Amino acid sequence: MNITEFKCPHRKKCGGCQIQNLTYEKQLSFKQVKVIKLLGKYHHVNEIIGMEHPYHYRNKVQAAFGERKGEIISGVYQSSTHTIVPVDSCLIEDQKADEIIVTIRKLLKSFKLRAFNDVTMKGFLRHVLVKRSFTTNEIMVVLVTSCLEFPKETQFINAIRSRHPEVTTVVQNVNNKRTSLVLGEQSRVLFGNGYIEDILCGFKFRISPKSFYQVNPLQTEVLYKKAIEFADLTGKERVLDAYCGTGTIGIIASQKAGEVVGVELNPDAVKNAVVNAELNCVKNISFFEDDAGKFMVKSARNDERFDVVIMDPPRAGASLEFLRCLVELGPDKVVYVSCNPETLARDLSFLTRKGYRVKKIQPVDMFPHTEHVETIVCLNKY
Ligand code: SAH
Fold this sequence. Notes:
Layout: H1 11-14, H2 24-39, E1 60-68, E2 71-77, E3 84-86, H3 95-110, E4 125-132, E5 139-145, H4 153-163, E6 167-174, E7 186-191, E8 196-200, E9 203-207, H5 217-231, E10 238-242, H6 248-254, E11 259-264, H7 267-279, E12 285-289, H8 292-301, E13 308-311, H9 320-329, E14 333-338, H10 341-353, E15 356-364, E16 374-381
Parallel strand pairs: 5-6, 10-11, 10-13, 11-12, 13-14
Antiparallel strand pairs: 1-2, 1-4, 2-3, 4-5, 6-7, 8-9, 14-16, 15-16
Helix pairs in contact: 2-10, 3-4, 8-9
The structure holds S-adenosyl-L-homocysteine.
């Protein structure tokens, strides 16, 4: 498929791929220019690393279910609304996942099951979430339903499996609240072990329905390798992986470090991180469930020493409290992984006024066709 000729029929209503009207080359230069504008004053910006095949890269696909004129539909919410735009296949989503979602929609009809209506709060199936590992090929299907009772459950699961034998686990998640969140509290494994495993940079990671995992695994490897290369570890360092999620960066870095400490706010992610360290027999890593800013305050108070801090905060960037204590702790090196160049620029402005100098800037295209840019910055203390 040639991107210059590609026009997604859903592009206006979906709004997910904001820059798909540009050729991939132009998309990359758009992102490069954005990073240079925001960060160019700190250092030369390396050329953005793009994808060779920037399609169907998403390993996690979710579809909302509803009914229109008596027919069951599945797709995405029209941007900032609760109207479902029917979508069967998407330029950036895994194709197998899309196929499974279409199969489930057809099955609903033959099983006489209704899709959920978020106005009347009636109906059964709300969302389907599919996660796939491109390395192990394991596939997890999560059926988000409005109640626990699942009519003809065994036959339904068997019907999915006979049409898609590649599905390795099926989980039911119950969400009976009036909410825009996809997943509810309660989950029940209907088939398989309830999780999939993926391999990144030679390490194994467990992905459960709720765990955070980067959605473009090919570029995640590129991103993590660069971040760890920037950290320039010799095997002796004490490394902090701040905002560590399920521990991916820290676990991969642990091989080249003396010790790694991870801090993360989300308790589920921390549990996953502990399991991931065990899965990989990594002994020199420990995880703390805490707000990264508060953790830094305690670390500074206790005169902790970190040689390198790798930080990967959410879009809002780091808190001032975090940055203040980071400077106080004074690691020789900070590797800042950011999904938002605006907050990154704000945080760099602070750090460069407090004794740090930007040494390298590397943008990576994690989300082709969307306006999002990921950037890694390496800072040294001077
Ligand atoms: N490094 C991980 C996760 C990055 S996403 C990876 O690559 O997979 C950012 C993470 O920061 C999320 O896991 C989120 O739960 C966590 N987070 C958000 N606010 C936080 C805070 N105040 N303190 C610590 N962690 C936080």
